[in-house]
Amino acid sequence: MIDKIRNEAQYNQVMALIEKFIAKATDSGGFNFLSATEKDELGALSLLAEQYEDDVLKLMPLPVTINSVVQHKIKELNITQVKLAEMLGLGTSKLSQILNGKREPDVMFLKAVHSKLGISGDFLLENV
């Protein structure tokens, strides 16, 4: 096991290993199904990747906005904007305009994403 990631190629190898552990955990029903050795290795690899990201990549956290959270939910649920508009009881053009920043979210939209997508009301109020 390496003690430090020194270049992007090593970082990519570590990330591939992390993804394999995550896939195995997902396929088997959760991280509790990984062996103690696998859990330890995953933890160590995660720390190595985090250190490299902090020191070398200096990744900036993305701003969390209502639009980004809704876009994430679309990907998470594996649905289209059309399907989401239907779920929220909105027109597709209205939803598209809101998600593209051409229209401000209105109360109907905010209530719908809160109740249908489970997005925190506090978060919504703080980010309007």
Structure overview:
The chain has 128 residues and is mainly α. It has 2 domains: 50 residues; 61 residues, Orthogonal Bundle (434 Repressor (Amino-terminal Domain)). Helix content is 69%, strand content 0%. The longest helix has 22 residues. The protein is elongated and about 55 Å long.
Radius of gyration over C-alpha positions, nearest whole angstrom? 20 Å
Q: What is the succession of H and E elements?
A: HHHHHHH
Alpha carbon gap, first and last residue: 47 Å
> What is the name of the CATH architecture of the largest domain?
Orthogonal Bundle
Highest CATH level, the class of the largest domain: Mainly Alpha
Please describe the structure with a list of short key phrases separated by commas or semicolons.
128 residues, mainly alpha, elongated, 434 Repressor (Amino-terminal Domain)
Describe, in short, the structure shown.
The chain has 128 residues and is mostly helical. Helix content is 69%, strand content 0%.
SSE diagram, text form:
Elements: H1 8-28, H2 36-57, H3 66-77, H4 81-88, H5 92-99, H6 107-117, H7 121-126
